[in-house]
């Protein structure tokens, strides 16, 4: 049941095959059993059970709020959640409790979703392994699969058992692990330069970065304003389309969102791909690309061709410039965004009061990890 799609579990709830409370308790139980993954920073058990109780009342009256009513979800800990600690996995914000919900969080709650908790990440979402937050690294659920254990046992040369695990990728590794481990049905991540898609690939789930402006950033604690986008993690593409349909649209609190009304997203049937034209950018076949990835890429292209799709080579000549622009924007905007954490207005503040400069320096040294410093 915990492996069902959103459509399947929604139908089961509507038909009374399971109640929201029972579903919530199953996920909470699994969260506790998989605590060693370190996927969650905060488990909002009381909040989730209360939400499940309210959902149950609605179902009894036949008044479901939407497709996510009574369905457990998780949220990366860099999205503001009213009344629930939001840390960005940093000492700088440890203990910070926002007074409001991020727009995307509120949209999920308005659909009746159950918030299981806040998930682990690289500090302030800057990283690609989910290993450098103050709460410790996130462990990939696949590290504990029977297949991996057998493979490692054959190659083992006296490594310690507790160090024999795989990373989840990052920075949304906690959300990816939470979905992969069946502790929730969908999760929010954030994506600047791959922070949703990277851990999705590592953990064997679907990761989607919507086009910039399609989904509101209001309430997402910024890393790189001009590239940050709320991301979606699910176990199948159809589920990602459902969540995107809920989240997409203009938000008056975020001037970068699209102004035109967004129609509900409907995933088209792809049983017939004969009318598709699939482009493969030649610039992406970089010399550094591993033979394994290159082989899988070719295999995917061959699958499309064998089903009647047209596969062609295309050119994206400005690819190299985009990488340079990314690094320039990323470093400058990160520096700008982290400058606000000075110990004066909010967040961590050190006990040193010799001078303003000394207080600044000590606050940032204590609050940030080496990457931010």
TrEMBL record:
Name the Enzyme Commission number(s) assigned to this protein: 6.3.5.7
The entry's cellular-component GO terms read: glutamyl-tRNA(Gln) amidotransferase complex; mitochondrion
Q: Which residues form a coiled coil?
A: none
Lineage: superkingdom: Eukaryota
Molecular-function annotations in GO: ATP binding; glutaminyl-tRNA synthase (glutamine-hydrolyzing) activity
The enzyme's main class, written as a single word, is: ligase
Pfam hit, one = Amidase
Q: Which UniProt keywords apply?
A: ATP-binding, Ligase, Mitochondrion, Nucleotide-binding, Protein biosynthesis
Q: Where is the active site?
A: 76, 171, 195
Q: Does the keyword Ligase apply?
A: yes
Where it sits in the cell: the answer is: Mitochondrion
According to the record, the residues making up region (Disordered) are 146-165
Record's catalysed reaction(s): L-glutamyl-tRNA(Gln) + L-glutamine + ATP + H2O = L-glutaminyl-tRNA(Gln) + L-glutamate + ADP + phosphate + H(+)
Q: Which GO terms describe its biological process?
A: glutaminyl-tRNAGln biosynthesis via transamidation; mitochondrial translation
* Limits of the Amidase domain: 25-143, 167-370
- Assign the protein's first listed, main location to one coarse class: mitochondrion
The record's similarity note reads: Belongs to the amidase family. GatA subfamily.
Q: What does this protein do?
A: Allows the formation of correctly charged Gln-tRNA(Gln) through the transamidation of misacylated Glu-tRNA(Gln) in the mitochondria. The reaction takes place in the presence of glutamine and ATP through an activated gamma-phospho-Glu-tRNA(Gln).
The protein's assembly and partners: Subunit of the heterotrimeric GatCAB amidotransferase (AdT) complex, composed of A (QRSL1), B (GATB) and C (GATC) subunits.
The name this protein goes by in its record: Glutamyl-tRNA(Gln) amidotransferase subunit A, mitochondrial
Organism the protein comes from = Vicugna pacos (Alpaca)
Q: Which gene encodes it?
A: QRSL1
């Amino acid at each position: 049941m915990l492996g069902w799609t959103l459509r399947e579990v929604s139908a089961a709830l509507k038909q009374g095959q399971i109640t929201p409370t029972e579903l919530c308790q199953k996920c909470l139980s699994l969260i506790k059993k998989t605590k060693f993954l370190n996927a969650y920073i905060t488990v909002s058990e009381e909040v989730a059970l209360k939400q499940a109780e309210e959902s149950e009342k609605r179902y009894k009256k036949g008044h479901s709020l939407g497709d996510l009513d009574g369905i457990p979800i998780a949220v990366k800990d860099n999205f503001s959640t009213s009344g629930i600690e939001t840390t960005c996995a940093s000492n700088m914000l440890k203990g910070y409790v926002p007074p409001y919900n991020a727009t995307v969080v509120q949209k999920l709650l308005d659909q009746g979703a159950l918030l299981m908790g806040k998930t682990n990440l690289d500090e302030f979402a800057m990283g690609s392994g989910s290993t450098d937050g103050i709460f410790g690294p996130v462990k990939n659920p696949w590290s504990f699969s029977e297949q991996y254990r057998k493979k490692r046992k054959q190659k083992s040369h006296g490594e310690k058992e507790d160090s024999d695990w795989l990373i989840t990728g990052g920075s949304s590794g906690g959300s990816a692990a939470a979905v992969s481990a069946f502790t929730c049905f969908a999760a929010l991540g954030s994506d600047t330069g791959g922070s949703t898609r990277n851990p999705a690939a590592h953990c064997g789930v679907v990761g989607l970065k919507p086009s910039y402006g399609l989904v509101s950033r209001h309430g997402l604690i910024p890393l790189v304003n001009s590239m940050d986008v709320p991301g979606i993690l699910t176990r199948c593409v159809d589920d990602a389309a459902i969540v995107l349909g809920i989240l997409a649209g203009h938000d008056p609190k975020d001037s970068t969102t699209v102004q035109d009304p967004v129609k509900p997203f409907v995933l088209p049937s792809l049983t017939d791909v004969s009318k598709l034209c699939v482009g493969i950018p030649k610039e992406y076949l970089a010399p550094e690309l591993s033979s394994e990835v290159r082989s899988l890429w070719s295999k995917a292209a061959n699958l499309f061709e064998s089903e009647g799709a047209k596969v062609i080579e295309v050119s994206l000549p400005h690819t190299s410039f985009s990488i340079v622009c990314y690094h320039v924007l990323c470093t400058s905007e990160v520096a700008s965004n982290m400058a606000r954490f000075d110990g004066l207005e909010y967040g961590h503040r050190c006990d040193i009061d010799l001078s303003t400069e000394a207080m600044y320096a000590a606050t940032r040294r204590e609050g940030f990890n080496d990457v931010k410093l």
